[in-house]
Structure formats: structure tokens, C-alpha cells
Amino acid sequence: MTSWKEWKRKQPYAAALLTNSMKKNRLSHAYLFEGSKGTGKMGIAVTLAKTLFCPFLDGVEPCNECSDCKRITSKNHPDVHFFSPEGHSIKIEQIRLLRKEFSYRGSESKRKLYIIEHADRMTQSAANSLLKFLEEPNEHETALLLTEQIQQLLPTIISRCQTITFNPLPSAEIRRMLIEEYNIPTSIAYLASAITNDYESAKARCEEEWFAQARKLVIQLMEEILERHYQVLLTIHEKWIPHFKEREQLELGLQLLLLWHRDVLQLKLGKEDEMVFIQEREKLEQFHFRFTKQQVIKQMEVILEAKKRLNANVNPQLLIEQTVLKLQE
């Protein structure tokens, strides 16, 4: 279970603001957590709920072991209510249920907390109903609204909440979490954290056999460009095209090729600590000695141009063939 100590490392601003408010007993009646997917909005919301209801706090740290903490984790606490879209939207019936629930005293304490995930997906009627609720705050009630699309919310709702922005997690933090918390192989964790700053997306990639195979194919293609250029087109036809079948997959393949060449450039610039293909140091050094810095930059430009052309509805197979041939020049 994530503690406030860990949240202060992952989301220092949000964690510091909330813990200081709780220590001073000045928690706002409504917060709006906004930020991209995977930045920890729901995680902090759950930790905050535990701090409010855990009877065995250590300062503001919940014990994570008591009945209250466990029921909050499983979303079964009678005084902590979770709401998320039913289908594509949060409907007025859900907000009416929320208002009805909060018209009663807390089942086990005076306090009540509600957490609305994807608050931007409220229908117009649901948003207006929630607005009336926010306009009549009760000192024992706390609202947490979570959104990835703050611009979709009514300005009047935003104005009645204290907004906390959740910043994208640094790549180094995503890597640490993948390796230490989920035992993801280092080589895969480094690569996944380089292609997205969304922790959940990075974790999902790491769990895909497809992604691990994609990494191997990129390394194989780079080896052949360097040592077995006569085999490159055969590898593209027999392995690359069958594996990167969808346009989105091919775009990711080009991104991995770009990361490989960026690693070569990092070697030339003496920035080895920023490399991604960390277990392929020997192969990267061969590229480093074979190509000049200007050539590596030109190769990166070729890949970037290919990514641009991919979005222009060109033939994917022809595109990758032309790109690899240019990388060999």
C-alpha cells in the first residue's frame, strides 16, 4: 500500500498540500484532482480516505491493516462512496443517489467522503445536480473529483473546488516502481518508461509478450544494419511486418528505433546514464564507432520523417522498407 511518504516522492506538491491541510485540520470541502492517466490521482484519493477514517494513525499515515483501511481498499466502507461512469457517462441518477446517501449521518462516524472518477464525463444534468451539492458544503463532508480532462468540467464546478494538478511521473520513478514493486526485468522497465510518462500504460506494456518481442526485433534489425545488411529486407518481410501489423504498433516500432539511435547519440555526448537499451551497451558502442554524430542525427531525422509519413496514410510495408534502406546509407 502506498504511504504519504511515497506520495511525497511521486507527487510532492499534492502530497504536501493535503497532508499539511490534514495536520492543521483545514481540509477543503471539495478537491479537484486533475492530471493525465497514471499519475496517482485515485491512489492519493484512497490514501486520503484512509487517513480520514483509520483509527490507528501514525501522524497522517494510515495503518493499512485495520478494518477501515481494508474496506476502503476494497471500496466497501459505508462512509466512503466511489462513483465512476456507468457506460460512457456519470448520470444524474448517480448524483441523486450520492445526495441521498449524504443526507444521512455517517454510518460509523460523522464524516463522509465521496470520490468521483472521470468527473468530466458527467452529463449536463448530473453536473448541475452536483453543483447544487457543492454549493451547500457540510463541514463533515469531503468531495474528491478526479479528471484527465479538466476543460470538460463546468467552470462553476471548478470554481467551487480546490484544484490540485498531478504532474507526469519522471521516467526514473516509473522505472523504480516497475522494477521494485512488480519485479519487471530492468531492460523492459527502462524501455517502457521511455515511451510513456503514464505509469499504468508503462506497466501494461511490460506485461505484454508482444512488447518484449518488439524489443528483440529492434535489436536484431539494428544488428543486421550494422553487420548483415544483406538480410535486412528478409527480416522486415518475415518478422517485422508480421509483428508490427497495426499502424499503432508500427508507430511504436519506429519509436523504439528512434530510442536506439538516441542511445547512440547519448554515448557520443557522454550521457550514458540517460540510455534506455542499457543491456545492449556493446552493440550501441559499435554504432557509436561506426557512425559520426552527424550521421546519427541524420538517421534520427529519417525515423522522425517516417513517423510523420505514417500518419499520412502511406503503405506501412513500403514505408519501413524505405526507412531502413535510408538508415543503411
From TrEMBL:
It comes from the Bacteria. One of its GO terms (molecular function) is DNA-directed DNA polymerase activity. GO terms for biological process: DNA-templated DNA replication. It holds the Pfam family DNA_pol3_delta2. InterPro entries: DNA_pol_HolB, DNA_Rep/Repair_Clamp_Loader, P-loop_NTPase. PANTHER family: DNA POLYMERASE III SUBUNIT DELTA, REPLICATION FACTOR C / DNA POLYMERASE III GAMMA-TAU SUBUNIT. This is DNA polymerase III subunit delta.
